[in-house]
Each structure stands twice: as C-alpha cells, then as structure tokens.
Amino acid sequence: MTASINFRRDVLPHLIAIIIFLILTAVYFSPVLFEDKGLAQNDILQFRGGAKEIQDFREETGEEALWTNSMFSGMPAYLIQTHYPGDFSGAIHSILTFDLPALAGNIFITLLCAYILFVTLGMSSWLAIIGAIAFAFTSYNIIILEAGHNTKSLTIAYIPMVLAGLIYALRHNLWIGAALFALGLTLNLHFNHLQMTYYMLLLVLVFAVVEIIFAIRNGTFAELLKRGLVLAVAAALAVGVNFGRLYTTAEYSQYSIRGKSELTAPNSGNQIGSGLDRDYAFNWSYGVGETITLLIPDFYGSSSSASLGTDSETYKAFTNMGVPPVQAEQIVEQGLPMYWGPQPGTSGPVYVGAIICFLFVLGIFIVDKRWVSWLVAGTVLSIVLAWGKNFEALNYLMFDYFPAYNKFRAVSSALVIAQIAIPFLGMLALWKLIRGRELKGLDKKLLISGSITAGICALVWLFAGSASFVGASDPQLIQAQFPIDAIRADRESMMRNDAFRSLVFIVLAAGLLYFYLKNKLSATVAIAGVGVLVLVDLWTVDKRYLSTDDFQRNVVSNYFQPTPADQLILQDKDLSYRVINLANPFNDARTSYFHKSVGGYHGAKLRRYQDLIDYHISQNNLEVLRMLNTRYALTGNPQQPVQRVPGPLGNAWFVENVEAVNSPDEEIAALSDFNAAETAVVDVSKFPVEKRSYSADNATIELTEYQPNYLKYQYQAAQPGLVVFSEIYYAAGWQAYLDGQPVEHIRANYVLRAMQVPAGQHTIEFRFTPASYEIGNTISMVCSILLLLVLAGAIFYGIKKKPTEEPIVEKV
C-alpha cells in the first residue's frame, strides 16, 4: 500500500528539529562559526604535527604516503592520517553535518543521531529534541572536544543511530531498520576509535541477551533469529565499507604497543599476553564514590585546573598573605587543582544531568521491564568497568581474558555506556509519563524517584563538611606555599553548591511533571518546561569546561611558529636526519611538524620502538641515538637551544661485524654496550646470517632520493658487505630492491633495517606498498557502492510502502 506524505505532519517537525539543533550549535560554537576562532585542543595540535609530512606528500603528489618518518623515527601512517578513496562514508558524514567545522559538526551530528533514535521509537518531535539535548550536552562530550578527542566524540555521536537501526529492525520494519543500522555502524567505524565502538558493542551484547531471553519466553525466537541474521549482514556491510581502515589497523596492532611484547621481562609490569600493561591501562580509573558526579558534577572538585573567582576563599587567602589583588585574581583564574578524587588528574567529571538521573530512576519504576533490564544492566556494567583498579575482582578478569579488552587504556571511558543508557531510559520514562497521565500510581512513583535523587543531593549538601577534601596534589601546593586550607574550603563549597544546584533542578522538574499529572499543566507546558530545564542544567555545566573565552584566533599558526632553534636546524638541507626534543621527547609532536623526530606523540607507537625508548633512549644511550641518525637535540635551554649530537652515523653505513644473538631479550641487551658504526646486532634465530665479519674498507653508501614511502641509495663496495640503514624495520609493507629486483632485508639493532649486499656499484631502493592497504581499499569501494544502493532502496521503500511487520513489542 502506497504511503502518502503529509508535509506538516511528516516533514515539518523534523525540519524544525534540525533548525533548533543548528541554532544550539551556532550559539555554543559562535566563535568558531562567526569569529574565525579556534580551540587549543592539545590532541589536535599534536595530530597536526604528526600528520604534517603525510599531508605535504599528499598535496604534492596526490598519493597516500602510508608511512611517515616524522615521529618515532618512522611508523605507519594508518593511525595518524590515511585516506581510503574507496570508503565513501566520509562524504556521507559531511552531508549529514552540512560540512560544519569540526567542533560544531561534532555536536550537531550528536544531536541529530540522538533525535533519530527517539523518533524511530515513536516519540513526538519535541520529546525527541529533549532526548537529543540530553545526549549531546552530557559534560563528557564537551570535555573531550576541549581536549581534542574529536574522533572519539564522533564515534560516540553515531552510537544512537546504530541503536536506532537495531531496535527499529527488531521491533518494527526490518529492512528500513537494517539500512539505518548499516549506515550508523559504518559511520561509527569510520572514525576508527575502536575503544568507543567496543563499549557500544558491550551495550549491544547486553541488549541481545535480554532480547533472546524475552524472545524465548514469548515464543518469538525464530522471528528474532531471522531479523538478527539480516542485521548481521548489515553489520558485515558496514565493516566492509571500513575494511581498508580496519584491515590496516588490525595488521599494525600486532606490531604496536597494543600487541604482545617479544621480551620475556618487559620494563613495565602486569602485562598478560598481548595488549597494554595493566597498570598503564588502569591508571585512569573512576573512583567508586566519584560515580556520584553523574548526579552532582563538582562532587570531587571539578577539574585538575579549575578557575576560581574573587569571591573564593583561595582568593581571599592570597590577598591576606599580601599578594596584590590583581595578581591573586590572575592566580585563581589561571586554574588550580581543585580535583581531589582518586584519578591522577581530570579535565572534568562525567555529568549526565540531575534531571536525567531523576528520570532514569523514574524509568526503573514505570518503564516496561524489557527496556529497563538492558538499560540498567548496561549502566551498572559501565560504572563497574569505569572503576577499573578500584574494583579488581571483575576488571582484572575482564582485562586478562575478555577478547581485545586489554587493547584499551583509560577505563574511566567506559562511562560512555552509562551516558547513553541513562538518558535513554530517562526519556522512555518521560515519554511513558506524558502518554500515561491516567495510569494508576504514577504520581506516587514520581514522588519516590524525586525523593531518592533529591534526597541524595540534600544529604551531600547537608553533610559535605564531613569529607576530607585532601587531593594528591596537595603536598606540592603546600610546598609552593599555597593556602591549602582555603583551597580545601573551596572544594567543599563546590561540592555543597552543586549538590544544592542539582536538588533545585530535580525539584523543579518533578514539580512540573507532578502538576501535569494532576491536570494543572498541559502536556505542551510540561514538555517545554522540562526541556528548558534539561538544557539549562547541562549547558551551564558544560560552559565550565568549554566557554566562549577558551576560543582564540590563529591557534594553529601560533602554535607552529618556528622557533629560532627550528630555523637553525632547518638550514641543514640534507635529505634526511633526525632531531630529538630533550625537553619533552615522547609527548610532543610539535617537533614532528618541522623535523624528522626521534620522539613524538601517539598512543600506538611500535612495540619494539617503545622497548628501545624504555631500555635505551630514555637512558641516554648515545650509540642508539647515533644509529638513529640523530643529528640535533633541542635542549629547551634558551642559552643553547640546539646541540649537535656527536657522531650520527648517517642514513646508512657498512659494518664490519655481526653480533649474533638468539632472542629479543639478548638483542635489546646487546645495545647497551656496542659500537653501532662497526657492529650490527642480529637475532639469528629469526634472520640467519652465516657470515659474521665483513670488510668495510672503501665502501660508501649515500641516500640520493627521499620520500616518506620511498628511499633510494647508491653504494659502491669492493667486497660483499652488510649495510645497516637508519630506518625502522617493518616487514608488513616495506620491500627492498637491488638494481630494480626484489631482495630480502633483515632486522638489526632491534629496530633497524639491514641488508647483505654484493660487491660493486649498485642501487638500493625501499618502497612501502602494503598489500593490506590495496586489498582493504578495494573491498571498501565495493561495499561503499553496495551501501549506497541499500540506502537508496530503503529510502524508496520507506516512501512508497508502509511497514507491514507487526512490532515484536511496542510497550514502553
């Protein structure tokens, strides 16, 4: 039966919603959209530094480098910046976001995807708008933007669309739902933040378990299985569109710090098999008591660098100490470590909103158990996982044995599940209450839910003074003669004020809904009132962590202004040499913007290179720096900002001896006492080398051409020899050629390339042409075309036909 479209009913409400989302985005990010300002996002600035060589090569040649020598002496570009022309999902994202600038586009797409979720459930447009606001303006979404975690933000943004497609396919129209599911999952995977996708899959797993239980109980398991198989095909299509990105990432991960260490006694402990070290992964674990920040934002003192006003006790204490008022104001405004929780530090709490927490509790009482079961279970799982080392019994078990869980760090990020599940159930509760005003006992359950959440806030407000307010940074503050008692008093004030603040919002929202149930207010007034309160609640907290004052002009250009030290080094026009930034070698990619850096900034550097850092570079092993062709050191000392590193060995050199070892442990230990110019350390159990001594007399080799993915050398030798190259060994893509013919090369000195070469005058080339990229990109293109056909078919079907399937369950 052909469906007729009524513009006012079927189109106009959604256009209004989009306009509202655009207005909210424009207001929050007006400095970006209208004043040409930017945000000093640390991770984005570091990304720009690390990606500079890749981007320059792309602009010059129109090709993908796939490798860069600008960070950690060389690494694949897959997890820095690589384009996959066969993947069309980036173009789809640009269309959905109206190609807005990154910060604005991130929030807009979060609003849009959450709106789609609630509309597919059958909510009115106005309720769906409230739900979208609750999703998008959760404090974590804003805080991660301020830090520069843009891909994490976008991966989270598309989770509601994935859930919308999943639920719609299972409970309403299978084909439209499956198409929406495929689109959402495609875009979720596109941004390649697999940790956030992993948390989404955990929530989906909980949902699947509950659906299976209810399907068996209701006798609909066969129907569920049929729909599940269609969704599996849709998921495979989404994976196919992103196959290039996923394939290269999977290939690289086994060689990165996410993979298994080859050393039997790694420098850092608690590593079980492959993956990250346990201590490293659990360093940022949310405190058990800290969970209350979901309801009361500054329960643990805001952030590790929070601004205070002139009405604060700290400001008054500084002035009483004789500090001039202007200087005291600058000190408190620049930020102080007000956070006193168990994490090493934080940019702010995860706050989902006092009203949303209240509605979540209400949902437990009034929403159908089929929804409550998986949303509450998902929330509890999220909170427990975020506790990390503070709940060892489950979390160490998960880390050691649950598939791929040990690939991820900062387990506090698991709260992303809660920040999805809590608003989800909260909005279902609001929907149920608005639709069911005549249902018996709603007013009582509303009062109970309000009493629980408001009661917690009231207790915190009344008894805040019983907490210690002692933070890990306090000894440093005392040593610096900061007024620690005043700082602790301000921490108490922050807790008390926010507890009262949350109490007020809960009372106001509960009051509106109570008067609605008692027929004192219309549904329109109640919905509008709650919506405004939710927006004001979240918006004002968000502004604490990302305000208009945080935006600046020329952020990128100012950050990457070459210093006199950079300019001095750049006068050296040799094709390739390396620089080490001694001031901050392994958490800085600014150096990579100008130079080929021994260090860098990346969460997935090569495992062997990390070992080299731990055992040798951080121990100032000069021979290791020489073999990496480190020519200059940035000292950070204004008196002598640049130093020449003694005796760099160049791009390649002939050695006289092979020191044969039989394991990675022996290989890395041998670098502690060897002459890199004369000796190559080779693990002969992996790379058999029969000849152990060579003549390097009168043998010369020179790098004559350089590109990130291509190196050309000319050499001349009177006898066969062994050449060591100051380039990182990576077998999954680098191919060596001698006079145009493929030849084998080996690994030497734990991380470098080496090659046995014949006598005479010859040409050596290295080309980086990983098969994974070519195969993956081809599969991505085929699946992208299929996805477009599926979406076109779903749109056509949705316009022309009305759904004929009966929902598996409609009750909320």
TrEMBL record:
It comes from the Bacteria. The chain crosses the membrane at residues 12-34, 100-119, 126-145, 151-169, 174-191, 197-216, 228-247, 348-366, 371-388, 408-434, 446-464, 499-517, 524-541, 779-799. Keywords: Membrane, Transmembrane, Transmembrane helix. This is YfhO family protein. It comes from Pontibacter silvestris.
